Amino acid sequence: MEDILEFLENNARISVEDLVKLTGKEKKDIQRTIKSYEKKGIIVKYRTVINRQKIKADQGVSALIEVKITPQKDVGFDSVAERIYRFPEVKSCYLLSGTYDLLLFVEGKDIQTVASFVSEKLAPLNLVKGTATHFMLKKYKEDGVVLVNESRNKRLPITY
Description:
By secondary structure, this protein is an alpha+beta fold. The protein has 5 helices and 6 strands.
């Protein structure tokens, strides 16, 4: 991956001036490159990773849902996936190899909201053959960022 993309992926708030220092490229070239990436859809969005476990307000519920689907003739999984990822509850959707075909990341205000999504919207779709829902209990790491305090060496020091 190009160095500018790698730096932006690790820190979306990095300044152009810092990119100049890190890459040795001209400021104009970096700005032009970033604009080009945005225009081509290579850079889709700048994102902040929030550790919601540290926020005291109601956080809602997150679930990973594995979905078995019947692919359609001439379009495969794409049209079914599109129908599913258009639901507002679906935050991410991935095509998989293995037992299940799609992996969804779904968010709702509570367990009942996610359960209703599965039972009333997802499962009734005629090409959905089955689902397996996994509720997320705790996040340890997200997008390469450790969200928990890393434990120190738990071994007792040796004393004489």
